[in-house]
């Protein structure tokens, strides 16, 4: 299982410093939607991270104008971009096609969509489907149960990521469960007093617990 | 009825020049999602438009982290920000509250949501509800019929905007219909050979045809 560390709601300078420090430790570094909307893709292009180890995900959260946003997004160093499952099928087809043409990856964010919608887009075979408990919905997310239920309901979906206040115990349980490809951890790494130690602790937790 | 001219998928410099020229003509100038995501809110703050006549709408398309995005958004000169109806109710409550606290306006984008969802959020009384035909879904949007159907289904919703390839004939028909508060015109103004003449033509069309 991969660890994706999300950086959000900080200045670009702070984000870039932290991203470079996290590069040797985690699998994927996410620059969150706040960084995209506060600073923009053009600015991100001018401040390349030149990551040596981790992949870079930009949380674009595309809703519309799929081809434009993903073409712009992949002009940065991003390896992975995100789009909303709640978008039109046409938008999702556009972002998926751009991603495949460029040999990159796409995460489809399942925020607030129902099973019927997921069924309609489950054929986007190479996409990562992101189970996403809204930050605005507050605490109390049963990540392990949600992943188990999702896998039972949509066994055909191969790539699953999960986000939403995941702590160390949940991370271990998700690793043992063996369904999710990726866990996404935000504040519990980037907001920790010592983010690097927090990231190392998460990495050890998800790797040592695999049976 | 108001005319909102949307500027999208151009450089920031070109957008600012066009916005200033359109300021005396149209009611609302929209800087589209592409400008927010390409350049960012921090950059937009550094390049104030100082509009004299028109209101400024930034098409943020907030999905999550509502309080943060709207607080950041209103640090620009924006009078109106947008959020997606497909967001969680908690996110919509946050963006609505920030908007009301600041005495500003919010447009809730109804892209890809069903009637059940609209019913759940129709109590957000001061919001403008945006009927939005996805650009990615291609041509063929019956704007007048869609507005009529919407008003019949949700008579309690007072403020309606409509977007999606609206041409001059549709603009006239929408003005005569008298339901929508605002029509949003993108490429047919900003992409015209002469955007100022196009904007004037739309303004004349929607005002002269009111009975």
Automatic annotation (TrEMBL), chains A, B:
Protein's UniProt keywords contain Amino-acid biosynthesis? no
Kindly indicate whether the keyword Lyase belongs to this entry.
yes
The alphabetical list of record keywords is: Lyase
The record's listing under InterPro entries reads: Aldolase_TIM (IPR013785), OMPdeCOase_dom (IPR001754), RibuloseP-bd_barrel (IPR011060)
Please state every residue range assigned to the domain named Orotidine 5'-phosphate decarboxylase: 2-202
According to its UniProt entry, the protein's GO biological process terms are:
'de novo' pyrimidine nucleobase biosynthetic process; L-ascorbic acid catabolic process
Any Pfam family from its record, for instance, is OMPdecase
Sample GO molecular function, one term: 3-dehydro-L-gulonate-6-phosphate decarboxylase activity
- Protein origin, superkingdom: Bacteria
Instruction: Write down what this protein is called.
Output: 3-hexulose-6-phosphate synthase
Q: What species was this sequence derived from?
A: Lactiplantibacillus garii
């Amino acid at each position: 299982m991969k660890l994706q560390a999300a950086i959000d709601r900080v200045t670009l300078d702070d984000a870039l410093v932290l991203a470079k420090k996290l590069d040797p430790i985690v699998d994927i570094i996410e620059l969150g939607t706040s960084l995209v909307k506060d600073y923009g893709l053009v600015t991100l292009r001018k401040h390349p991270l030149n990551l040596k180890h981790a992949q870079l995900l930009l949380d674009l959260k595309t809703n519309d104008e799929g081809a434009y946003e993903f073409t712009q997004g992949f002009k940065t160093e991003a390896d992975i971009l995100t789009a909303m499952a709640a978008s039109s099928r046409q938008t999702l087809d556009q972002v998926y096609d751009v991603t495949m043409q460029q040999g990159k990856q796409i995460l489809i964010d399942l925020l607030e969509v129902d099973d019927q919608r997921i069924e309609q887009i489950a054929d986007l075979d190479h996409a990562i489907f992101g189970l996403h408990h809204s930050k605005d919905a507050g605490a109390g997310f049963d990540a392990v149960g949600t992943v188990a239920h999702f896998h039972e309901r949509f066994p055909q979906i191969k790539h699953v990521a999960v986000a939403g206040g995941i702590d160390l115990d949940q991370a271990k349980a998700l690793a043992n469960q063996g369904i999710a490809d990726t866990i996404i951890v935000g504040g519990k790494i980037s907001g920790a007093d010592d983010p690097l130690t927090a990231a190392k602790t998460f990495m050890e937790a998800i790797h040592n617990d695999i049976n």
